[in-house]
Amino acid sequence: MDTKAFLELLCNENGVSGYESNLNPTIIKAFERYTDEIKVDKLGNVIALKKGKSLDSSNNIKIMIAAHMDEIGLMVADFEDNGFIRFTNIGGVDPRTILGQEVIVHGKEDLLGVIGSKPPHLQDPEEQDKAVKMEDMTIDIGLSKERVQELVNIGDTITINRKLQDLIGSRITAKALDDRAGIAAMLDCMKELNQINHEADIYFVSTVQEEVSMAGALVGAYNIDPDIGIAVDVGFGSTPELSKSKTLELGNGPGITLGGNIHPNLRKKLINVATEYNIPNQIEINAGPTGTDARVMQITREGIPSLVLSIPLKYMHTSVELVDMKDIKDTGKLLAFFIASITKESLEGLLCY
Amino acid sequence: MLLRELTEASGVSGNEKEVRDLIISEIKDYVSSFKIDRIGNIIAHKKGKSTGKKLMITAHMDEVGLIVTEIDNMGLLKFITVGGIDKRILVSKTVLVGKEKILGVIGAKPIHLQKKEERTKALNLDELYIDIGASTKEEAEEKINVGDYVLFSTKYTEFGDDLIKAKALDNRVGCSLLIDLVKEVEDIEFYAVFTVMEEVGLVGAGPAAYEVDPDIAIILEGTLCYDMPKLDTHLIPTYLNKGPAISLIDRTTIYNKEMRDKIVGIAEENNIPYQFRKTSMGGNDSGKIHIAKEGAVTTTISVPCRYIHSPVSVMSRKDYNNTFALLKAILSEFKREVL
Fold this sequence. Notes:
Helix content of chain B: 10-25%
Number of strands of chain A: 17
Shape of chain B: globular
CATH superfamily of the largest domain in chain B: Zn peptidases
Helix content of chain A: 25-40%
CATH architecture of the largest domain in chain B: 3-Layer(aba) Sandwich
Number of domains of chain A: 2
Oligomer: heterodimer
Distance between the termini of chain A: 41 Å
Largest interface: A-B, 67 and 65 residues
Structural class of chain B: alpha+beta
Number of strands of chain B: 17
CATH topology of the largest domain in chain A: Aminopeptidase
Strand order of the largest sheet of chain B: 1-2-12-3-13-16-14-15
CATH class of the largest domain in chain A: Alpha Beta
Number of helices of chain A: 9
CATH topology of the largest domain in chain B: Aminopeptidase
Largest sheet of chain A: 8 strands, mixed
Structural class of chain A: alpha+beta
CATH architecture of the largest domain in chain A: 3-Layer(aba) Sandwich
């Protein structure tokens, strides 16, 4: 399947943290062509295994790649007498990004709604300098309270009504590119691995609940017990309001994270592979635990050497996240060549401090 | 319903051509004559039984939006607002830029990199920009010019209990009502006027009224509706689903009471629900029309629209139908020279 078409299906689907299973059919259908077995674990992680080829295939080294399938979103909290819905958030939602937004309430059926805004005619001038609090917002689905309560339950999830769209060049915008872009990069990696030999067994894990607790990566890593864990997530794209040192340039390839969460020798190896195969990349610095699945992978069981690859993404956690498809492709490519470079023989030396 | 085409058309104040062309193509076979005046208003004349009084019915074509003021070195577009827009509703939206309707996004700083107190402050216009995916100024300049108008990219959708969600219901709903009147009403003489630039200061209405010189004018609008829960009822300007809103007073006009009483009488006689527009805020083309030349008696009749001046306004089809019924009843009374 074409990677962009796959990403479009993923982003247009809804899968707020804890409610990701809508995505399973799309992921399984795309991944089963390139992997040997796929299972869904107790928390909902979709784990696709691509076996490696070595002399003793029963004792292959294991690499776990984690990209999270959940997205931030909203949840129904209460109903007003006129049928309007009150809500709360799941994951990090800036309330300023949801005012005047179209939403889909995932009740018994998907229902279009509007997070209404007060017309400027009725506002005091100073009012516009204050952000509207989430608790003061309502969702209007255009139905009476009785009808709303037939179709919607407290606890139902809500997502922004946004479809993936092309911008100019190879850039796209969508909701939930954090981290469906990472899942797309895993597909690109599989496609590359189809052409090259690798010794390691690769566990491509589409993880759940990264945005709230990283619970998916935690149990996934425990279960798989990999020799190396790699989180493929998104990194802050460069925009005028952010300092250059904290951001990645779109179109310049994946960010390779450097810092305490990262195994230093594996990271050097990753950069060497990128250089050898001429894959663009940039450095991202993060002193302590990263905000990715690698945070929990690193401390699973007796500890797992971890890496983070970040796809540059602008406007993170808004409904207009923006990435360059080139970066996704380069991320998949770098992952694949890195994987192919790891052998049972070389691994021990690489892991030495 | 023509509202889909009308609301999805591009018509930020000063750039109404697309809407104007659409309206002309709809009405041209139903009017005796029409012209586009010097500033872009459509003035159409429908001949019929003369009553000795000149009736003008108007709706403004324009909508609020943005205009590009600068293309920066990173290929991002700076903008200002056209008409009354709450800057807070711009964040995290998609927009369409220029004639070719190039898709752009208005993003925001990631929540992870914000200080907690930042979240309580609204983002200022000078902190916002449009990203079309360009990485350099040159790349953006291939697609965009300074001065390009920017639209919300909202699609027309029917939802809920007979409701409609769209951008620019203020005032394509008025345009739609006026087009329907032009098409349906027979043998009543009136002028149908579609004005430009209402949202930036009632610009088009004055010259149009000067030209037509009406005795009576009916202004059709999509007006403020803010029927929020737990709000004191006196603060609710209009309600959805309670019928056409008849204006009492706004910032531009004190409406003629005799005329209003007649209209209320017509609504009651015909069992058409109606409500009064209970706020004095806002204003419309009546402000210019009632003082053009020797003056005119005006009335404003509106379809209540929630969340106007934002990318997603909401109205009720029931209100539309009741407003249209009231307008037809008013016109037949006009024909009987009651008005």
